[in-house]
C-alpha cells in the first residue's frame, strides 16, 4: 500500500477556525479585522496583477472573504482550504452574494501537483504563520503560478514589536482577535520569506507594511514591515 504524504497542517489550527466558522461573514465578530483589512489586501493585489479576467487561486481561503472580493471585480477564482466547516460557510455565502468561486478542500501541495502553472495569480494571505512548514506552501504557490504570474503573501514579522502589537495588543489589550489566534514562534521575518521565495524561483517586487490606528480604528498600508506585511512576488518568464 502506498503511504499518503503527511498534510502540512496543524489539526489544532483547523479545529480553532472550525469552531468559529459560522462567524466568517459577521463583520462584528472575531473576523472583523479580516473584513477591515480586505480592501487593503484587494487593492494591493489588484494594483499589481489587474485581476479582471485572471485565473486566481486563493490559498487558505477560509470563509471566502478575499476570494469573493476578487471574484466581484472579475477574477476567475478558485479558493482552497483544509477547514471543511469554513468552506461550507464560504459556499453557502455564494447564494447570498451571487458571486462565483470554485471552492475545494485540498492542500496547496496537492493542487500544485495537479495544476502546475495553472494560475496567473496566487494569493496566500494570513496563512503562512498557521502551518508547520511554510516553505512547503511557498514552493507550492510558486509551482501553481505560470511564468510571468504573480504570487502574493501576507503574514507577521517576528520581533519584540510584533509580539507586543500582534499578540499582546491585538489579542489581549484591544481584543481585535481571539486570544490564542497566533503563535509567536511561527511568525516569519521578511528575510525568511524572501529566502523561501528565492528558493522557489520567485522574485520580490514590493514589500508593504500594514499599520493600525487605535484612535482612528482603521488599518492602512505603509513602508513599515516590522509587524504585519504584504509581499508581491513574480515568477520570471
From TrEMBL:
Catalytic activity: a 3-demethylubiquinol + S-adenosyl-L-methionine = a ubiquinol + S-adenosyl-L-homocysteine + H(+); a 3-(all-trans-polyprenyl)benzene-1,2-diol + S-adenosyl-L-methionine = a 2-methoxy-6-(all-trans-polyprenyl)phenol + S-adenosyl-L-homocysteine + H(+)
A GO biological process held by the record: methylation
Domain of life: Bacteria
Pfam families: Methyltransf_23
Pathway, per record: Cofactor biosynthesis; ubiquinone biosynthesis
Keywords: Methyltransferase, S-adenosyl-L-methionine, Transferase, Ubiquinone biosynthesis
Binding residues for S-adenosyl-L-methionine: 41, 60, 81, 125
Coiled coil: none
EC main group: transferase
Enzyme nomenclature, EC number: 2.1.1.222, 2.1.1.64
Molecular function, one GO term: 3-demethylubiquinol 3-O-methyltransferase activity
Function: O-methyltransferase that catalyzes the 2 O-methylation steps in the ubiquinone biosynthetic pathway.
HAMAP family recorded: UbiG (MF_00472)
PANTHER family per the UniProt record, alphabetical: METHYLTRANSFERASE, UBIQUINONE BIOSYNTHESIS O-METHYLTRANSFERASE, MITOCHONDRIAL
Family listed: Belongs to the methyltransferase superfamily. UbiG/COQ3 family.
Name under which the protein is recorded: Ubiquinone biosynthesis O-methyltransferase
